[in-house]
Sequence to fold (275 residues):
Amino acid sequence: MTELPPLASAPDATDPLSAIRIVLVSTSHPGNIGSTARAMLNMGLTDLVLVRPDKYPHSQATAMASGAVSVLERARVVETLEEAVSDCGWVVGTSARPRHLGDEPLRPWDAAAQLAARARYAPVALVFGCERTGLTNDELQRCNAVTMIPANPGYSSLNLSQAVQVMTYELRKAALPEVPPVSSKHEHPWYAPPSAEEMERFYAHLEQALRGTGFLDPANPRVLMRRLRTLFNRAQPDRNELNILRGILTSIETPKIRRPYRPESATRSDGQEDV
Fold:
C-alpha cells in the first residue's frame, strides 16, 4: 500500500483540474483502470487513486491506457476510501441509481461546476465504485454529495471508463475559463465591428435606397426599418461587410449600364454570338 503524501502546497487556482482527483473503489477489471487513465488524460486530469483494486498493477491496465501510461505510473493504491480522500475539501460519489440517501443527486454538470470551483482552494475528489455494484451506502455516506449520469432509463448500464469520460468531460468544461471566440481576422481594422455612427449612416443609406426603389412606404417607414435593424443587429456585419452593403446600395441608386449576360446556350454552333 502506498500512503498518500501530505498536500505540499495550495492548488493552482489557474488550473483547477490539477487538484481534481479521480478515485476508483474495488475495481475488478484492470482494463477499466487503464481506460480510466486514458479518459482522464484526454480531459487534462492526472491524479488517480485506486482503493483495493482486484488486480493492479496489470499488463491489461497498461495496454488499455495507451498513451496515458504516465497517469498509471503516478497512480496511488490505498486500502480505504478514507485514505484516498483524507486531504480533500469536497468529495462527490457517483451512483447509477437513486439511493434515497441524503439530498437528490446532482446533475453531472452541476457536480462538475462545484468540484471545479472548490478545486481552486483545496483538493477535491470524484469517486467511482466497482463495476458490478457501484459504491456501497457506507461509501456514499463518506461523500459530501452524489451525482448520477442521466442515461437512458431503458438501458442505463455504463462501462466504468465511459462514466469517467462523461464526468471528466463535464469537469473540463467547468474548469476551462470562458474565453469569447475571437477570429484572427479582427486584427485588421476593416474586419473590426463597425461603430454605432457607421451603422446609423448605413441605416440612413438603406432607407434612402429603399425609398428610391419604392420598396419602402414613405408614409410609414418605421416598421420596416425597425425589422431591418433587428436583422442586421443579429447578423453583426463587420466593417468590411458593411462597406460591401453600402456599395450594393450605391449600385442600386446609380446603376451602371452593362452588356446583358448571355448564357452559353445563346452561342451559335459556328462560334458567333446571336445578336
